[in-house]
Amino acid sequence: MAPGPALHSAQAALRKTATHCPYCSLQCGMTLATGHDGAPVITPLDFPSNCGALCRKGYTAAALLGHPERLRTPLVRDASGELVPASWEDALDHVAARLVACQGEHGREAVGVFGGGGLTNEKAYQLGKFARVALRTPSIDYNGRFCMSSAATAANHALGIDRGLPFPLADLSETGAVLLVGSNLAETMPPAVSRLDDVVAGGGALIVADPRATETARRATLHLQLTPGTDLALANGLLHIAIRDGLVDEEYVAGRTTGFDRVRQRLGAYWPDRVERTTGVPVADLRRAVQLLAEAESAMILTGRGPEQQHQGTDTVLGFINLALALGLPGRPRSGWGCLTGQGNGQGGREHGQPVRLGGGPGVTTTTELPVGALADIPPNEGRMLRVRGGQLIAVFRLREGGVRATQPWCPHRGGPLADGLVGSGQLVCPLHGRAFDLGTGEADGGLPGVVTYPARVGDDGTILVTLPKGDAPLACRTDADGEAG
Questions:
Q1: Do 334 and 171 contact (CB within 8 A), yes or no?
Q2: How many CB atoms lie within 10 A of CB 153?
Q3: Could you tell me how far CA 345 lies from the centroid of its own chain?
Q4: In this structure, are strands 113-115 and 140-142 parallel, antiparallel, or unpaired?
Q5: Helix, strand, coil fractions of the chain, as percent rounded to 5
Q6: What is the per-residue pLDDT across 211-247, written as a single tens digit (0 to 9) for each?
Q7: pLDDT at 390
Q8: Which of 315, 308, 309 is nearest to 448 (CA)?
């Protein structure tokens, strides 16, 4: 005798579980239940991030549970190389034996651990513990390295903390103006785009900077359709206009920021006509964008993967943070700068034990002083390319007035070897474009990005010692702002 509808309802109610969509950073609330036919049934919850809505990804999130290609048992290759089902005990024993053998032959660091932004805080923490305590390997990272490290590094540098979106998502609906850079929320986070619609419906302004005429851009008050890869020039151009037109919150800048005078000087090279030629955005639109942000009672600047995943991604995000600071946005109600995280828990992955060795991760001291060559081998006021651990190159310069300096090896604007440049008065003149770099700070003239410098000194025996990232972390390079050197 088949169970009646009442029994089915009771079973469904018993199996209903409140959970979250596993995909993007919205983590929309929903319930997962078992239907009459045993298939999963998803219902949206009235949760702060989705307010009772779900996109297609959310509604189909449980489809993989019953997919015919879903793995339901471990697979291990047999002697012929074919993958065959195995028990969990056999599979785990096989993996453990291979890990031990690999580390025994090649060292602890030969085994790496790679996590993901889809892990919960607890799982990310446990994965980090497994790498450091069980495997005792320094080789651990996660896939957020490829998307979030630029924003995390920029936020740490400018604000002293990496917090992604530092205000509630609900504040987005109530702000007066939004500048959205390099993100298409209408397709990547559909439930959140209603927040942007709320801004426009409430009489506010939505400014979208995107090379494409996306669905999100079509909702905008103003679309800044820039040439791909010119986001940094756009940020600097907008800040140039804010300074020139007297729209900077001078009291805020004086009381809550440092280094703005240096930024002001560098931005002299980003006059509106030049930025229009570089980005393709008309001067009138640049001015209007700044006015909309500066004149709104509250405003937000949000960056996404677009400006971050470029060869100058950190500098680009810093450019938009500088704009937000100049307008006095961070710290005001319903205002500030924020980074739209893509994965479910990219923030937790960064903070709970996955990345530690490269830029953007938690603050860990990872430097060491290494000998790179002899002072006697470099004539005064000249430079040499020297090889350090792993064959990596570094440019080292001997100053006539005494002391040594070390920088990244290649010019960030034209790619030539910096060691071939002219050295004098603590400066290096690039042999390719004639611009000067300060060998102490790495700063460049003409408003261009500078070079990475490394602490250097001469030991008692005449050996040049340079402080570099510890281990095999790659040496950093700063790159050109907008592809122009003149």
A1: yes
A2: 22
A3: 14
A4: parallel
A5: 35, 20, 40
A6: 999 999 999 999 999 999 999 999 999 999 999 999 9
A7: 62
A8: 315
